[in-house]
Design a protein that fits this description.
This protein is α+β, with helices and mostly antiparallel strands. It contains 15 helices and 11 strands.
Length: 476
């Protein structure tokens, strides 16, 4: 049996449409598929019309070798049955999910055919089929098809990192989320078991067009707010949390309660984006000392990693339903302190808890939302889980504020999380659809998506939008 070569590194240089990047990609492909197989398929590709014409025994041999090699690299055992083959397909399926649902659907609001995965790449994920497409002569495969195959392989590599880490944790993430939920159910929440105890009904008042939040009320209409403001009606399920007061009494507060595990695809996207930011920062430093060409080289060398950026894969969020902004901030902090004490005392497997707050938007990172955050380390879990407590005011800003279209940004400048995700994908778009290969206007796509999402967020839960002539005009 052949010795397993060193696992290749995934870098942004593999996703650039130039000769140096092509050479880097071929070098990695030779490691993954073995040079002997790469050369054989390159020779066979000149003589056949279709990958399916390659003899079955050759294809099966290549498939088995790749399953074993990838399984060794990611420490996946092949027992009880075909686990390495299953791991390969799970990784490639996750890669397709990332591209389709976390990248393409967000950037392109219409079904832009050039931006979609071609059927061959999407459906046939056998290692030997992938190798066949990567080695096929240029007169038998388009540049776009070859690039798509390399991009899918790169996303699959990151997907494998995520799936491998989960497979090797001694603590199941589902069990951790269950433990955290049960802690709050037993130590903080009051009321009946079996679901949310009640619904909180309230109205949020917003500045027209920008959706800037101007107030929250339990009444509609409310004479405190001008008739020109747009109004959203909210009916949200809540849990009731019990807090101890300084005098020894208790107070009950309704909270929006959201225990959640992130979609694995979002972990891949987050890893790619944070990796790109790290590479760009390093390139800026190099540029000041060695010039633009050295900076480009630094981007090429930038590693794409997911492991360092998984701190919010499991998240539990609470939002006290209090309309006054100052009181909401105070309750946010009180719930934060009380939750920390309960976690330290009662959470199974607890190791450590550290603050990761963002409560000053002017001095903080504008991509993060105002909240009290705790990063909680658990025995057997390789990354911390996140507890987030937000005020109702900041929660609604995060959900709905779209701002105005900023020509420099190429999109709306509001704090809505949906727009933040679009900005993130826009910054990576050239790695997914490099302009020399794809005839796509990525800036126009981002602007169109921003306008579409802003329209949706402006009118979601809005009362009587059909009375607004501008809204009716946009529908026609």
């Amino acid at each position: 049996m052949n010795a397993i070569a060193e696992k290749p590194e995934l870098t942004f240089g593999l996703l650039q449409p130039d000769r140096r990047s092509t050479a880097m990609a071929v070098s990695n492909q030779r490691v993954l598929f073995r040079s002997e197989n790469y050369n054989l398929f390159k020779k066979l590709g000149r003589d056949i019309c279709d990958i399916q014409d390659i003899p079955a025994e050759i294809r099966q041999s290549v498939d088995a070798e790749v399953y074993d090699r990838v399984g060794e690299w990611f420490d996946i055992p092949d027992r009880p049955r075909n686990e390495r083959r299953k791991f390969w397909y799970a990784s490639m399926n996750l890669a397709n999910h990332v591209f389709d649902e976390h990248v393409r659907e967000l950037l392109f609001v219409s079904e832009e055919r050039q931006a979609t995965l071609t059927a061959d790449v999407k459906v046939d994920k056998r290692p030997s089929s992938i190798l066949g497409r990567l080695t096929m002569p240029i007169d038998k495969i388009t540049k776009q098809g070859r690039y798509e195959q390399g991009r899918q392989l790169a996303l699959g590599w990151s997907a494998a990192e995520v799936l491998s880490e989960i497979a090797h944790m001694s603590k199941d993430p589902d069990d951790v989320l269950t433990d955290l939920h049960n802690l709050f159910a037993r130590r903080a929440f009051v009321g009946k078991i079996g679901g949310n105890n009640d619904n909180a009904q309230f109205y949020s008042y917003h500045e027209p067009e920008t959706n800037r939040l101007v107030g929250i009320s339990e009444h509609y209409p409310d004479q405190r707010f001008d008739e020109r403001f747009w109004v959203k009606a909210h009916k949200e399920p809540v849990r009731t949390i019990e807090l101890k007061t300084e005098t020894g009494g208790t107070v009950h507060v309704n909270v929006l309660y959201d225990p959640d595990q992130k979609d694995l695809g979002s972990l891949v996207v987050k890893g790619w984006h944070r990796s790109l930011k790290a590479a760009q920062k390093a390139a800026e430093e190099v540029s000041r000392e060695a010039g633009e060409e050295a900076a480009k080289s630094q981007i090429h060398k930038g590693k794409i990693e997911t492991a360092p950026y998984r701190g919010d894969a499991i998240r539990l969020r609470m939002v006290p339903v209090v309309f006054d902004r100052q009181q909401g901030d105070w309750l946010r902090d009180e719930i934060s302190k009380s939750s920390k004490e309960s976690i330290e005392q009662w959470l199974p497997g607890f190791k450590d808890i550290k603050p990761d707050d963002e409560v000053n938007k002017e001095n903080g990172d504008p991509s993060r939302f105002l909240a009290r955050r705790w990063k909680i380390s658990i025995d057997g879990l390789s990354y911390p889980i996140e507890l987030v407590i937000q005020s109702l005011w900041d929660y609604l800003v995060q959900e709905y504020e779209v701002g105005r279209f900023d020509s420099k940004l190429g999109m709306h400048n509001g704090y809505a999380h949906r727009l933040y995700k679009l900005k993130l994908i826009g910054e990576m778009a050239r790695s997914f659809w490099p302009p020399p290969i794809f005839d796509l206007d990525l800036k126009e796509a981002q602007a169109n998506s921003s306008s579409y999402n802003a329209f949706i967020l402006r009118n979601e839960k809005r009362i009587h939008p059909l009375r607004d002539p501008d809204f009716v005009a946009q529908l026609s």
